[in-house]
Write a structure and sequence with these properties.
heterodimer; A: alpha/beta; seven-stranded mixed sheet; 9 helices; B: mainly alpha; elongated
């Protein structure tokens, strides 16, 4: 069952005219992604299709969304903006615009030209197909290209595991955990902080049996995985890639931390399990 | 007898007026000092806790209900007048909130610094007004009352 618990947040986030255009184009509870680009038609995606909405947002529309998302406090979201997104009540808003750099570093993004609003969905039971590998609770990596359903799957895995094991969710971007999602009683969450900054402290203080991480990316994440593995804590993580073979070419070291890899595809629909690979 | 009653009435009225004027300037000074403390609080909270403007407006421990009302209504996008502050002083507070909401992490420091300087100047002016207009006004009005009594009696 596909349940969208975030559409009320969309009503608060989007200007009324944009919300009405979207609502008229597609049932709002089916929306999974909204792409708003300056001067171009809005594109709305659901799990099965995408629709162009006959409205071209202007600068004021984009500024209004940014103001609402930052609660009129742009300064408070500097770190997130530097990384290209703004979190808003469990929704992630991806940003494009003009980068401001200082030497090698991005200081901020200004003159926003497009926003990608990812609307998370809770699909309770979507991880049931993995119950055989979850029962033994081995290190498992969920692999898919963007918009493949990784976060939804990993959230449901966390739901299943948190009924049995002390499960810690490291929710770097505020997407995995929300009080309205269903989890077991043994769940802890550490949110809005880069993985490499928190892992040592939380393993020592919270003593989890399983750690759930979303979107591995940089080389520092490889070090983090090594540390968790060495401590004897199980890892459930996700990563952007086409599949195991591509990861072997580009990041073999990272794969060495995992026993299982689950490859996802967005065909026939987002979150379809393409294959389960035993790596060790 | 009527003269004595009239004298008492004049003393009471002018005394009340004198103290009212002094209290007006005292309250203005109190609001502006409170505003200066608010700016310092914003500086600390935005630097270390990245609190948003709504949280700042709600969590600050106001010493005056007038500043609480002005800041809370500004954050909500409403306009509010105050008899204790001039339009210029209110617009400084409103501008501070508006500029802060539009500034990024780096430019907010300049906004806070500018607001601090203006608030310091406003507090200085308000202190001067309290002494020169408030306290002196009270004394002069009381003296005027005494003068009137002497004339009446």
């Amino acid at each position: 069952m596909l349940i969208c618990i975030f559409f009320s947040m969309l009503t608060r986030l989007l200007p009324t005219n944009i919300f009405d255009y979207i609502k008229n184009a597609i049932p709002i509870q089916k929306v999974t992604e909204i792409r708003i680009r300056l001067g171009r038609k809005i594109v709305v995606k659901s799990a099965f299709n995408e629709i162009s909405v006959d409205y071209k947002p202007n600068e004021n529309d984009i500024q209004e969304i940014i103001r609402t998302a930052t609660r009129n406090s742009l300064y408070a979201y500097q770190d997130e903006i530097k990384k290209g997104y703004i979190p808003f009540e469990g929704i992630r808003i991806g940003l494009s615009g003009s980068g401001v750099t200082d030497g090698e570093k991005i200081i901020t993004i200004k003159d926003f030209t497009s926003l990608t609003i990812r609307v998370p969905h809770e699909v309770v039971g979507c991880a049931e197909k993995l119950v055989r590998i979850l029962n033994v609770c081995e290190n498992t990596l969920i692999i898919s290209p963007p918009y493949g359903g990784k976060t939804t799957l990993i959230r449901d895995i966390a739901r299943l595991l948190s009924g049995k094991y002390e499960t810690l969710i490291v929710d770097e971007r505020g997407e995995l955990y929300n009080e309205s999602y269903t989890f077991g009683d043994k769940v802890d969450v550490f949110s809005n902080t880069p993985k490499n900054m928190v892992i040592e402290g939380i393993i020592r203080s919270i003593s989890p049996e399983v750690i759930v991480l979303d979107e591995l990316f940089s080389e520092s994440d490889d070090v983090v995985l090594g540390e968790i593995d060495r401590c004897g804590v199980k890892i459930i993580a996700s990563i952007h890639a086409l599949g195991v073979e591509q990861l072997k070419k580009h990041n073999q070291k990272l794969l060495e931390h995992f026993v299982y890899a689950v490859e996802l595809s967005n065909k026939p629909k987002v979150g379809s399990i393409k294959s389960i690979v035993r790596l060790k | 007898m009527i003269k004595i009653v009239l004298a008492i009435v004049i003393v009471v009225l002018l005394g009340y007026l004198g103290y009212g004027i002094e209290r007006y300037y005292k309250t203005r000074l109190k609001i502006l000092r409170d505003y200066k403390n608010f700016i310092a609080y914003v500086g600390r909270e935005t630097e270390f806790f990245k609190s948003n403007i709504e949280e700042l407006a709600q969590k600050f421990e106001y010493q005056t209900k007038q500043l609480n009302e002005i800041i809370s209504s500004t954050v909500k996008g409403e306009n509010l007048d105050s008899i204790f502050l001039t339009k210029e002083l209110i617009s400084r507070i409103v501008n501070f909130i508006t500029e802060l909401s539009n500034s990024d992490y780096h430019s907010k420091n300049a906004v806070i610094k500018n607001a601090e300087e203006l608030a310091t100047q406003s507090v200085y002016d308000a202190e001067k007004d309290k002494t020169q207009k408030g306290e002196l006004g009270r004394k002069l009005i009381i003296l005027l009352g005494i003068g009137l009594i002497v004339l009446i009696i």
